[in-house]
Amino acid sequence: MLFNSIEFVFFFIIVTGAFFLLPHKFRWVLLLVASCFFYMFFKPIYILILGFTIVIDYYAGILLENEPDKAKKKRYLVMSLVANIGVLAVFKYFNFFNDNITSVAEYMGYKNPIPYLSILLPIGLSFHTFQAMSYTIEVYRGNQRAERHFGIYSLYVMFYPQLVAGPIERPQNVLHQFHEVQTFKYDNVVSGLRLMLWGMFKKVVIADRLAVVTDMVFSDPHHHSSVAIAIGAVMFAFQIFCDFSGYSDIALGSARVMGFKLMLNFDRPFNSKSVTEFWRRWHISLSTWFNDYLFNPIVVGLRNWGTMAIVFGLLITFFISGFWHGAGWKFVIYGVLNGLALVYEYLTRKKRKKLFKKLPVPVANAIGKFCTVGFIAFSWIFFRAENVSDALYMVGRLPGVFTEIPQMISSRHFSTGIQLAPMRMLLCVALILFMEGVHMLQGKYDVVQLVERRPVAVRWGIYYVLVLAILYLGMFNNKEFIYFQF
């Protein structure tokens, strides 16, 4: 069992109220207890997993800072990384590798004696594991002082707003904030609540409404037309964005109300004109994590390879990024596809730049955005499909769009092929267009300032419209956030 979005809001109100009532010296205790309760609401025993890695990394950080010998420092770092990756490997990847060993053994006529582990994946394991690893790596590099306060370090790993789905914070950004006195600031409360409201709107109104369409298509692709599969793929792209960025907005907003500043995790990714730009705007905390701790070290280590160092670094980074998302070949394919796209863009960047210079800017931008969204939606078929077989079937059906649409036009009978009332489909499209319209405004203006400069009646009118939209258009079906499973 896990908090849904509405329960999270009530939990946040209770914790925040108590936070400002308590003296500063007791606030870390409140936040740590609240974070433990929040995590244990899923499966209480799994708090021991977090406790194990927290103890290991806390002492590893102190040892790393106090040890002058580089060889010993590296051993301490390796010890910490092995502990974190080991926990991740057991709970997230053990059965995946065991299943593949079983398949290979059966093909060769042998039996795999290793039993299957009947364990649940702890929520957000990949997120807090990567956040813990960034701490010891930064201490090892000398960019962060080791945290001596065990409770504050525990809170860094377990801070409930971003515990289960990020953003994946760096110690330089967050640790010092838990030591600082956070005072009640009206501006923080207003901007934080406004961000939470927008996040809730994206989650329960847009994402969960789009989920009705995508669940129909992806749960039974063999009984849907090519047009339906294409619509399902595109709508899933917007669903996962609204679901994940909606959670990030709620996390950033709830932290901001208490005075804490978390890093931006999304920056209008569907406004990207290339896949490379998309990954700079999407899940920024993870993209920068891989860039700093995997891609850059690979490129530096292989700098004698020249261009091939970049190519190799991109492929390895996105292979691991795909595998980070889930223990399954479909996630590996998803990661490799994006890696290949970035390699292509890197190798052809000069030729593409010359080509686009020959086109009017609006046309070049439109082509870039269309191709980017199309490719991302295509790659996410592997991410969302039940298995690789279903994903390949759906991909194989996509060319059928070019025959089905002309047939619909000639017969004057257009159908999405999805068993959903036309008005509900139109509402889904309208919601996507509304959100992207807001994003277009954000690209030209500071939307927050635009709202703040309006008269009180206009501002509150906007807030009431969003609240009413959540109440009347929201899908309150206890549908969990997609990234909680990672």
DSSP, total strands: 0
Oligomer: single chain
The portion of residues assigned to helices is: over 70%
Count of helical regions: 20
- CA distance, first residue to last residue: 15 Å
How many domain modules? 2
Pfam families: MBOAT
Family: Belongs to the membrane-bound acyltransferase family.
Protein name: MBOAT family protein
Subcellular location: Cell membrane
Q: Care to describe what's here?
A:
The chain is an all-alpha fold. It folds into two domains: 177 residues, no CATH class; 298 residues, no CATH class. It has 20 helices and no strands. It is globular, with a radius of gyration of 24 Å. The model has no long low-confidence stretch (mean pLDDT 89). Its main location: membrane. InterPro entries: Ac/AlaTfrase_AlgI/DltB, AlgI, MB_O-acyltransferase, MBOAT_fam. Keywords: Acyltransferase, Cell membrane, Membrane, Transferase, Transmembrane, Transmembrane helix. Belongs to the membrane-bound acyltransferase family.
Secondary structure topology:
Blueprint: H1 5-21, H2 24-40, H3 47-66, H4 70-107, H5 125-141, H6 150-158, H7 171-179, H8 186-219, H9 226-257, H10 275-281, H11 284-301, H12 307-325, H13 329-347, H14 349-357, H15 361-384, H16 388-397, H17 401-411, H18 422-444, H19 447-452, H20 456-473
